[in-house]
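Collaborator request, handled under Task 6.
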Amino acid sequence: MRGRAVLVALVGVLVLVAVAALLAWQQYQDARSSALGAVRNRTVLAATVFDTYFAGQIAQLNAIADAPAVVNQDQVAMSAYFKRVVASNRRAFTGGLGWIDRQGVSRVSSTAAPPGQEPVSVADRTYFRQAMAGKPFISEGITARRSNQHVVVIAVPTHDASGQVSGVLAGALLVNPTPTSQTSIDLGFKNLVVLDRLGQSVLSGFDKPRNAALAARLRRPAGPTGQVLGDTKGLSDASGHVVAYATSAVPGWVIAIDQPRSEVLAAPRRSLALSLVAIGGVAALVLALFIRSVLRARGAAEQEERLARETTAFAGQVAGASAVRQVCDATAGSLAAAFPGTLAVVALAADDGLGARVAAAAGGVFDRTIHGPAVNAVAEEALIAPAALAYDTEALVAAEAPHIAAAFGGARRALYAQALTAPDGARAGALVLLFADELELDEDERRFVAGQAEQAAIGIERTQAREREHDVATQLQRSLLPERLPAVTGLDLAARYNAGSTGLVIGGDWYDAVVRPDGLVHVTVGDVAGRGIEAATLMGQLRNAFRAYALEHASPGEVLSRLLRHVAGDDMATAVILTIDPATGDVRCASAGHPPPLILPAPGAEVVTMAVESGPPLGAAATSDVPEAAVHCAAGSAIVLYTDGLVEQRGASIDAGIERVAAAIAAHGTADAGRLADAVLRGAGADGGLDDDVALLVVRFTGVTAEPVTDRPGTEASVLQARS
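Structure tokens returned to the collaborator:
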């Protein structure tokens, strides 16, 4: 059993470790997904910013293209106009504004051309051809032919007064490699990469990434929500990177964030928080409120689930309970489990309905001497109160239940008590919950406690009725047994009957003792198979037959062989008979399928099993001779006869039960027959409830004191007198 217990404990620990590891891994996966999602969201946000910016620039160019100077193709007016626009907003077109005619020659520019320089042709530029097709266009990163600067050109078509395309209006943006600013890092845009349609890094001098395969992959459409590669080679061809990317629709560029994987997963929550800062304080507040409501809902769901489990488990415990104490223990245990850290106490109403007394407690140390009277007072108040008592603060407990505050020294700061009321209105008792901290039960918790109280009340009423029936059954059973055993010189006889079951079901266990006129004593213990009225009837018949045959026959085997004829059909019984000569201590034994008697040869000696050859049980075979065994018992020895209910217990072997009884006999070897019988019952587990009825008979040999020898005259009268 110890090995099994260790194995079960080991398996339990391994299961807990596995569950904990699984939960820890799941939490890591959730955090990882959240971190990767945050990086992807930042790329989508950056792409959106680029789209918004370029859309604004295109709108501004379209507005310039509608100016009269541009429509009329007045190059002088256009030059002056472009210079005014650039001067008024130096951050709009940092590379200048220019107009290109239909042949692709740059005719007007806000920047002065060097003296003598011929107009520059841009007819081969993609932005010129796309704009001439009639739609705005944003170029890839290019090098300006006149200034050799890195620029990005935004181009829109211009129209003459008739609406025909007259040329292209181009706005240039200077692009210079710059280190990432602290603001970008704080907003979560560290390692931001912008790839144009040719795969050039716009923010890094138009260099192409080392990892050309990844750059080509990123240029594929990423969808409106972007994509993220959780573990890949970065654009620098370094391993272990996270690359999130999205497509900026207006310029057709790829916006990517390329970071080492260790940085992304080291602080996913911090990354998420930084992302939320970029969205704004309002979004952060909404998210905080949402998380709070989710956590509260989850806590409420967990509490509801726990209470539901306790309700189901408690219903099963109450349904299976056969004693009031079991119902009370189950109620206190269920409430203590449902409210961790709570002291749950169940009190039963007195028989006269006046007062209540503690019956069970769970969930904390409980001293009946110190705490019992205070809890009894609360239970009595709850028993007669029209509603539950709820004192949810320490001050309220001190004011309304000062005896509780005094008994617990202020260690219990909240109290909830409710009567145990059955559906018919009967109140069987009350339950009291004492909390270490101030606490107010919510509506669901109150309903749970009320449901437990109702089930407990029903269970208590049912088990009380069964216990009353059990008392009636026990009294009926005892009425079928001898009121007292005969007093025999030289012997100390004691018998006990223990009813092991509940309810109105009587058994067939019996014991008896008969003193014959010749001084021999027959003692017997027997057991009829089965329970109920039939078993009790057969037991009464066998006991009466035994008394008749015991007076007629001096042999225990003869008595048993005649008892065989009284059991017929499907009935069966076992019995053992001892025939004792108190004057000599000689004992003869006969058994019909019954457990062998136990013999204590002398106080302090080892208890042994009487070596008797058992005949078949009564009713299992035809009438036949029953073998006998003989033993001599000196003064101080004892013999214990019993039915199988004393040594048979669920989950244990009979040998273990016999050893347990033998140990109890040896430990009380000097006790008289009555105390020895009580000790044997306790040792066998009668205090905790035996599974079956038990009949027990103890024979203690006390010895016979010889009368003094006298001399008498040898007359006929004196001889007759001496013989008698």
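The cover message to the collaborator said: "The chain has a mean pLDDT of 84. The chain has four domains: 55-174, 180-199+216-273, 301-468, 480-701. Please let us know whether this matches your experimental observations."
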